[in-house]
Design goal:
Blueprint (H helix, E strand, L loop, with lengths): L4 E8 L3 H18 L4 E5 L4 H7 L5 H9 L2 E6 L14 H11 L4 E7 L12 H4 L3 E7 L11 E4 L5 E4 L6 H16 L4 E6 L5 H18 L3 E6 H10 L6 E4 L1 H14 L7 E8 L5 E7 L16 H13 L4 H16 L2 E2 L9 E2 L2 H16 L1
Parallel strand pairs: 1-2, 1-3, 3-12, 5-10, 8-9, 8-10, 13-14
Antiparallel strand pairs: 4-5, 4-11, 6-7, 11-12
Bound molecules: 3-isopropylmalic acid (IPM) and magnesium ion.
């Protein structure tokens, strides 16, 4: 039997620790009931780390992150950190992890669960059965481009600068991931940029097209401007299968697609690096929702996005598709049985707390595993 997998758990701030606790329950269930075993280490990150160490992530934790088989990340940030300078803001920890671990491919699936189709703000006939994958480039573009900064001008006013920059290599490596994902899905890729106004967007479009013609022309590739994509997502989201896009556009479009599904509290994500010579890649799994400080400690947080992030870890880092499917099924069952956390509550359903939701998901796991 293979050795236990080393998981670094970084709950972070706000509702991060609460949803992580319920994920821990699910992990313990797998530890107890299956042959998949885990060695878990838990560390501070974000504001929680800043409060104790004056930095959003310490060198020791970075070191552990580099050595883990996979990272489970909760959420970071809160209003008490708003006035901190950029280099120590909680979000910096996440950006540093993404950059230093080379996590260039961010998979953000947006799935409408049958039981929740009427929770979307869009009409049910537009979102029913929706299953799209937003693939966001995560280590380049305007988030990291140089030059950047705020400079003083001679007239006493200031100028803020950020730079959108993409190279052939950065575009092609995320493009490859996109085409490969599509080849296991419906085979449709939309490459999204603003080639009509940005040179980096034009390069993106051209490189995606070349890559397609070289290796993937058995699939279907369309190019789309980001603004049009935003509109198409709310008009007719089911035309999409895989959307491959830049860091900033991916940030925006993934929030839109999250909202289509009825709740941000349902959506997991995976951030993946390049394979090394041993065929292993760095990976971090986190819910798409943030730290939601306004509901911290109220039992209103939905742990499903975090639990599904763990399922993505099983699938993409540990090659455990069967176990990942088990979690998806258990989540489908609690929803079918009418259990709802506050974010997805509708009249006639049963309102449950964060903790109860975690417990019930484990009960469903018991039921379907035996
Ligand atoms: C996300 C978040 C982050 C981002 C923040 C917290 C830095 O919005 O993961 O979508 O902008 O990438
Ligand atoms: Mg975002």
């Amino acid at each position: 039997m293979s050795a236990n997998k080393k998981i670094l758990m970084l709950p972070g701030d706000g509702i991060g620790p609460e949803v992580m606790q319920q994920t821990n329950r699910v992990i313990n269930w797998f530890d107890k009931n299956t042959e998949v075993g885990f060695d878990i280490e838990e560390e501070l990150v974000g504001g929680a780390s800043y409060d104790k160490y004056n930095t959003p992530i310490t060198d020791e934790v970075m070191e552990k992150a580099l050595n883990a088989d996979a990272i489970l990340f909760g959420a970071v940030g809160g209003p008490e950190y708003d006035d901190l300078s950029f280099d120590v803001k909680p979000e910096r920890a996440l950006l540093k992890l993404r950059k230093d671990l080379g996590l260039f491919a961010n998979l953000r699936p947006a799935i409408v669960f049958n039981a929740l189709a009427d929770a979307s703000s869009l009409k049910i006939e537009i979102v029913r059965g929706l299953d799209i994958m937003i693939l966001r480039e995560l280590t380049g573009g305007i988030y990291f481009g140089e030059p950047r900064g705020i400079e003083k001008l001679s007239d006493g006013t200031r100028r803020g600068i950020n730079t959108e920059v993409y190279s052939t290599k950065e575009i092609r490596r995320v493009g490859e991931v996109g085409f490969e994902l599509a080849s296991k899905r419906k085979g449709i890729v939309h490459s999204v940029e603003k080639a009509n106004v940005m040179e980096s967007g034009l390069l993106w479009r051209e490189e995606m097209q070349y890559l397609y013609e070289e290796k993937f022309d058995h699939l279907k590739l369309s190019h789309m401007y980001a603004d049009n994509c935003a509109m198409q997502l709310v008009k007719d989201p089911r035309q999409f299968d895989v959307i491959v896009t830049t860091n900033l556009f991916g940030d925006l479009l993934s929030d839109i697609s999250a909202a289509l599904t009825g709740s941000l509290g349902m959506l997991p994500s995976a951030s993946l690096g390049e394979y090394n010579k041993q065929g292993i890649r760095k990976s971090l799994y986190e819910p798409v929702h943030g730290s939601a400080p306004d509901i911290r400690g109220t039992g209103k947080a939905n742990p499903i996005a975090m639990i599904l992030s763990f399922a993505m870890m099983l699938r993409y880092s540990l090659d455990r598709n069967k176990e990942a499917d088990l979690i998806k099924k258990a989540v489908g069952l609690v929803l079918k049985d009418g259990l709802r956390t506050a974010d997805i509550f509708q009249s006639g359903k049963t309102l449950v707390s964060t903790e109860k939701m975690g417990e019930e998901i484990c009960n469903r796991l018991d039921r379907i595993a035996n």
